[in-house]
TrEMBL record:
Protein name per the record: Diacylglycerol kinase
Presence of keyword Signal: no
Region Disordered: start-end pairs: 284-329
Matching SUPFAM superfamilies: NAD kinase/diacylglycerol kinase-like
Species of the source: Oecophyllibacter saccharovorans
């Protein structure tokens, strides 16, 4: 039986890279697959379309054609639909058309049309654990599953930033982002350099309290595109790597230069492995997968079940730069 593919296209990304999209669709159709293309019309539309497609039971693979934000929206549709038949055998595919495409790089998804089409047809998949941001209500309780009230939670795939990088993402110009891509973030960072206060805030990792002026909670090793932030961390793990920055502007500069050199995190950045991270202090800006989110307080955990993503099957690498949190006895 011919497998059916649903391609969910972010039209902004598609307009910028129309030729790449057409070559990808042609390559996929040449395999004999049944391919249906749908355009998203507004923020959150990919989530709704994914949920409807999964409930219909018509498709074997739903492909996010866009950037990291589009992939995250499609992943959210999978989480909403749950793991019950007929959804649990469907996989999420990625055709990278975004600015940074961090998640596609993380999972070694091919960027060429023919190679990507071959991957999708092959049925290869890996099980990953998306992250879940749960915002705190005014009563102090946590907003938790079920996921039907969409405004209560956020799903992310790669990482969450709290502090300076989130402040930059909150202030990035959508016009500049559409025109200049990743350069828009650098422009925002330069303008935010003197605005951000670098005040310490609390971070609780598996029950242990810490302080930081900025924090990154990541499921992968890459940051901002091809730059390796940590080694050994994979989306297939239930653990998050939490990076805590204690300093101010010069420490951010040290981190940036270290990433550009390919050295990863510089000395002085604390690394922790944890499955639950809480930001109890209100008012700290958040970003996830390169898109602006809400503000703390919030709690970060795994989604209730793993997500099947079309990606080359690979053995996870051994962790070498982070150690599990040890309870103080």
């Amino acid at each position: 039986m011919t497998e059916r593919f649903l391609i969910l296209l972010n039209p902004r990304a598609g307009r910028r890279r129309k030729g790449r999209l057409e070559r990808f669709l042609a390559a996929l159709r040449q395999t004999g697959a049944s391919v249906e293309l749908r355009m998203t019309e507004h923020a959150g539309h990919a989530t709704a379309l994914t949920y409807q497609a999964l409930c219909s039971g018509k498709y074997g693979c739903i492909v996010a054609a866009g950037g990291d934000g589009t992939v995250a929206e499609v992943a959210r549709g999978f989480v909403l639909a749950g793991t019950h038949p007929p959804t649990r055998k469907v996989r999420l595919g990625i055709w990278p058309l975004g600015t940074a495409n961090v998640y596609a790089r993380e999972l070694h998804v091919p960027f060429t049309p023919q190679a990507n089409a071959r991957l999708l047809i092959s049925g290869q998949r890996v099980n990953v654990w998306p992250g879940l941001i749960q915002y705190c209500q005014e009563t102090g309780s946590w907003k938790a599953p079920p996921y039907s009230p969409l405004k209560q939670t956020e799903i992310f795939l790669q990482m969450v930033g709290a502090g300076f990088d989130a402040h930059c993402v909150h202030n990035v110009s959508t016009v500049l982002k559409a025109r200049w891509g990743a350069l828009a973030y650098l422009i925002s960072a330069s303008s935010s350099w003197k605005q951000f206060s670098f005040r310490p805030f609390g971070v609780v990792c598996d029950g242990q309290s810490y302080r930081a002026t900025s924090a990154i909670v990541t499921k992968g090793g890459l940051y901002g595109g091809p730059f390796r932030l940590v080694t050994g961390q994979t989306p297939q793990s239930r653990k998050f790597t939490v990076l805590l920055l204690q300093g101010e502007r010069r420490d951010i500069l040290r981190l940036v230069f270290s990433l550009l050199r390919g050295d990863g995190c510089p000395a002085g950045v604390e690394k922790i492995l944890a499955e639950e991270i809480v930001f109890p202090q209100p008012g700290v800006p958040l970003q996830s997968d390169g898109d602006s989110r809400n503000f703390t307080p919030c709690r970060i955990t795994n989604t209730p079940s793993a997500l099947s993503v079309a990606a080359p099957e690979a053995r996870p690498r051994r962790r070498r730069d982070a150690k599990p949190h040890l309870q103080q006895g």
